[in-house]
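JOB MANIFEST
job_type = single_chain_structure
chain_count = 1
residues = 473
[input]
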Amino acid sequence: MGREKRMRIVMKFGGTAIANGEKIKTAANLVMQSKEAAENMEIVVVTSAIYAVTDTIYEQANRIAEEGKVEKVKEFVGELRKKHNMVASVAICDTQVLKKVKGEIKERIAEMEKALIGICLLGELTLRSLDYIGSFGERLAAPILAGAIQSAGIDAVHFTGGDIGIITNAEYGSAQLMGGIEQEVRARIMPLLGDKIPVVCGFTGETKDGKITTLGRGGSDYTATIIGAAIDADEIWLWKDTDGIMSADPKRIKNARKIPYISYIEAMELSYFGAAVLHPRAIEPVMEKKIPIRVKNLLNPDDEGTLIGEGQEKTKKAAKAITLIENTSIVNIAGTGIRSISDVASRIFSVLAARNVDIIMISHGSSERTLSLVIDSAQLERAIDAIQSIHAVDTVIRDISYNSNVCTVGVVGVGMAGTIGVAGKVFSALGNEGISVKMISQGSSEFNISFVVQKEEAYKAAQAIHDVFEMGS
């Protein structure tokens, strides 16, 4: 008789799901209960940093580089060590395991301190240094979660992304995977399954020569799907602090509801337009193998959550969800009376790509020789400097202006494709509320309509569209 097929699951725990020691203990117990419920289940765990730690690390690293005060480094790493030791003390009941984990925390904090002192003395923070420093959030969380799983009675061992074969290029801050890594990841993970629980740092990878890289913010989801595809997982479970993917932000939009099922393409559209669903690239590794992703609530584990799969669900609702990117800016670039705007556009896109500025939306006014771009407001200064560098050496640009008091809204649903009157319904709803639209875009797939409104009208706009398409029912 052949070997009984085992259920193979990748579980990813987000920052809010491991926000403190109690939640990490809950996560560890969930892993244990899943193993007990299905004796043959094979589990790989991927962890984010503890909630808000990565943001704090980035903020402090920038401050330390600017101020150049070594005592600030000592103060910061002391606070970080204390925080992680306290979390570990709550999460881990076994005293021997706790002692070992605290030793690992001490070693990693010491590594981080050396790097920060170097940055402090040089007064310079490169993208490579930022990736190295930023990786410590996950590298401090992984020993604690692995220790909590051990304390719950299952053998666990922790790894960085590089340890398990996630090899990338040197595009620090948003590294791209090198070809052929799937076989390497599989070879390193598979021998562990069954006997141990591998706990992998999300968000991190490394170059061929061992330099630490990161996959972009929210990259722990991406780590989970890379591993899931490599080991042919049955499902990937993303543990968060909501019951699944919602039709809108429930903190802002009344009647927002859980969406039981959503297709890969809809999830990609939502993540692109700012929904805290998953990393925009996270769908790519699993699409070819058709591996489902399930978004579940750590505090309500019996709920089935939202299933993300290949099929496009037939529904009477043309639009399924609405999301916002809050801190965006419109940049308007007017060209001179040249024959075509293509020349201006090619130069603009080249300089923005060179400065790592991501473009969210594009609109082209051909009669006025204008190009309007929507970007993340955090990248505005960099974008303006890049565009002005063209203006400094040539006269193809006549004028540059921008508006930072705007929000980008995305309306998503595969049912929108080929449905007559969807755009009319969207903009009628906005018109009825007296909301002016600054910019509009619709993809050729027709799976989304996106537009830009004044920031103070964004949630009113989202509520109006959520209501008109009855997303909450």
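[summary]
The domain at 8-241 is CATH 3.40.1160.10 (Carbamate kinase).
The chain has two domains: 8-241, 321-468.
exit_status = 0
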